[in-house]
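Exercise 7.
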Amino acid sequence: MPRARMSGKAVIVTGAAAGIGRATARLLAACGAHVVLADLDGDRAAEAAAELGPRHIAFAVDVASKSSLAAMFAACREAFGRIDVLVNNAGRTDQRGLPLLDHDRSSFEAVLSVNLSGAAMAGRMALAHMAGEEGAGEGGAIVNVASGAAFRALPLRGSYSASKAGVLGLTRALADEARAHGVRVNAVAPGFVHTDLVGALIAAGRLDPAEAAAKIPLGRIGRPEEIAEVIAFLAGPAASRVSGAILAADGGSQAFGGSRPPAAVEVAAVAPAEAATTIVIGDGFGETCAGTFWNDDARVVWLPSDVATDGLVLRSALDEQLRRHGGIAAIVDASGAPAGEAGLLPALTRRFEVARAAGHVLCGQRYGAFVSFIDGATLAGAAEAAAYRDAAGMLVKTLACEWAAKGVRANAVAGAPGEGACQTLHFLAGPQASYCTGSVVEVGGEVDVR
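Solution. The predicted structure, written as tokens, is:
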């Protein structure tokens, strides 16, 4: 997938002086955007902006202050005449390592005022600017930076976990509210990433980087640039129909639930240059997705749903493509439930057979990505469809944890078979999603592009 085309767009990135925010500002600037690098540390933000060149400005902002946020948006509009994207990245944590009962009100509020209520204020202000008076604005995108801590409790970091869990709810609710105005709202949930915050935990002796990496299925702590790629996707035109999505970029941490550490990661093979082939399986929506890949001038092989009815037939077909092309970059399963079948068991069995055949190829070559589209609309009954989606999603998460040691990523997209789902499948299949595995992305109602 080519990088986002953001030429002429005006973007605000909070927490832009370092880490994920700085990497995001750098990437979006490289994509052609005008960037406001906003941070509590105005001097560091100014240094970062100067590195990017004269098309970009810095702004000292306290995201916990409504007046400071208002001044930030005004500065963006004054400099660039518009506001197209807000990246809500500013965040803080309590470094003392105390249980919640030992926190006082001020320390608790200090974290939530930045991570949650500050994000909410900034999001509402951005929506007001993007929607315009009486809904006459040009639309836009808001990307909230949550955390893997949003999915599970972190003892001695309770206020941080609570604040980031709130960001997930904020994202979904604001997406519903903003959809009518042509504004998309999504979130990325990073795991451990080499940032100043993580560096402070390591320096304080509260995080052992080797121990942390050993608990991550991909076997390593992420890089800020990898999270920036996810943010750029969600902010840009490649995700023009995606809203309300939460995309985990944590090396599989959120998916892993084993009582033992994940298997040690083997030395992954280096994909040869000619291994840019993507295989898309499935009629109808699968053909549509294949067309999206073809539009990028990539080498794409489309296989009909019929080949997925027999695992041995599919495995033979995939082996043939491997021999023909010398390597497979990604396999996208959009085959759906078997034709004429409305049963839960046949639908899940097909998922298993396709995954097993794909794993044989990808794990054998020790690189690549597997992405599954989970619909369930063909099943008889809402209960069966819900059971299918949850079971199929957990199947993909399990594959991600088992295949990570082989250098293979596995993700899924769940929702209606529309353009937003197709765009997300495309991203997850590509190299820009290098730290995403074990993620099941719920793609909801789509946004009318203005």
